[in-house]
Amino acid sequence: MAEEAGFDLVEVAPMAVPPVCRIMDYGKFKYQKKKRMQEARKRQFVVQIKEVKIRYKTDDHDLATKVRQAGEFLKEGHKVKFVMFFKGREIQFASLGQHVMEKVAADLMEFGNLERPPRMEGRVLSMYFMSKGTVKRTESNDAKDEVE
User: Fold this and answer.
1) What CATH number corresponds to the domain at position 79?
2) 103 and 39, same structural domain?
3) What single string gives the DSSP state of each residue in the chain?
4) How many CA within 13 A on the CB side of residue 43?
5) What is the DSSP annotation of 14-36?
6) Residue 58 lies inside a defined structural domain of this protein
7) Which member of 7, 66, 73, 148 has the greatest number of CB atoms within 10 A?
């Protein structure tokens, strides 16, 4: 039947019982499959883990800047890892670092969810935030109204 129609007999689902075959143009089938794969690859979003390094004695303004940047990462749909290193004898101030991490977590709750709370791993205190999803920005018409 396929030869009479000028097409190919293509096995579409070899694992099915019985195997599924279709009469079609095999070249066109391969082309369409390749196009679907390219389209899927174009639309996929790879979530990256963005790392923000802070210290327990980071100043409030600097900390606010890093929190704002982390908020931008979360709005874009990425994960954020906050890392705090303790050098030498600073390890005895781990409780101060814990308080700073809790403060950061409270500030970032509007942008993302706390995936893993602050946890000590050797001399490193770290926590992870997961995005709530991408936020679409809408421009307000207030500025346009004032100009007119």
Assistant:
1) 3.30.110.10
2) no
3) -HHHHT-EEEEEETTSSSPEEEEE-HHHHHHHHHHHHHHHHHH-----EEEEEE-TT--HHHHHHHHHHHHHHHHTT-EEEEEEE--GGGGGGHHHHHHHHHHHHHHHTTTEEEEEEEEEETTEEEEEEEE---------SHHHHHH-
4) 6
5) TTSSSPEEEEE-HHHHHHHHHHH
6) yes
7) 73
What pLDDT was estimated at residue 133? Answer: 67
Point out which residues pair with 20 in neighbouring strands: 13
Q: Based on the fold, state whether residues 27 and 54 are members of the same structural domain.
A: no
Answer whether residue 144 is part of any domain.
no
Is residue 138 in some structural domain? Answer: no
Divide the 148 residues of the chain into consecutive groups of 10 and give the mean pLDDT of each group. 86 87 89 92 83 93 94 90 93 92 92 91 93 56 44
Residues 63 and 37 in one domain: no
Structural domain that includes position 21: 2-43
Bridging pattern class, strands 124-131 and 20-24: unpaired
The answer to whether residues 80 and 49 touch, using CB atoms and an 8 Å cutoff, is yes
Predicted pLDDT of residue 134: 57
Same domain (yes/no): 109, 90: yes
